[in-house]
Write a structure and sequence with these properties.
This protein is mainly alpha-helical. Helices cover about 55% and strands about 0% of the residues. It is built from seven helices and no strands. About 25% of the residues are buried.
């Protein structure tokens, strides 16, 4: 399946917490174009691909997106580490904090939780690939 090395490929060392930035970056975790949707998009669509090369490519991209989840979660964790209640309230992070404290929860910057409506898998390879390009911001 995978060979997980238990270390980030690109280490993250944030020294100054900033909940305001964390709130924005959190959307890259579970927002409409975030890593959670991307990983599920590719890993779900791979089954409809007509050849093994395309299937393998989508599988590889999907597992890469899972690795991005870990990097984004690490960034958010480090940005919210050791915050005082005053910093949490001042930064606008209190709404998130009430429900999750500083746990990592997949949601958009506006507070909408991640759900499967964030990605599509139609079973038609052309439709699915167009959806992938649209989600990744590709210009057709």
């Amino acid at each position: 399946m995978w060979n997980y090395e238990k270390r980030l490929q690109y280490p993250i060392h944030i020294k100054t917490p900033n909940a305001k930035i964390a709130k924005i970056i959190l959307t890259q975790y579970g927002g409409p174009d975030g890593e959670m949707g991307a990983s599920m998009r590719y890993l779900s669509q791979r089954f409809a691909m007509p050849n093994r090369i395309a299937m393998g490519t989508l599988n590889d991209i999907g597992t890469e997106e899972l690795g991005h989840l870990e990097m984004v979660a690490t960034i958010v964790h480090q940005l919210t580490r050791n915050l005082s209640m005053e910093e949490i309230e001042k930064s606008g992070f209190a709404d998130y904090y009430v429900d999750h404290t500083v746990g990592i929860w997949p949601q958009a910057a506006g507070g909408i939780p991640f759900n499967a409506c964030e990605f599509q898998s139609k079973g038609d390879p052309i439709t699915d690939l167009f959806e992938d390009m649209a989600a990744d911001g590709a210009i057709i």
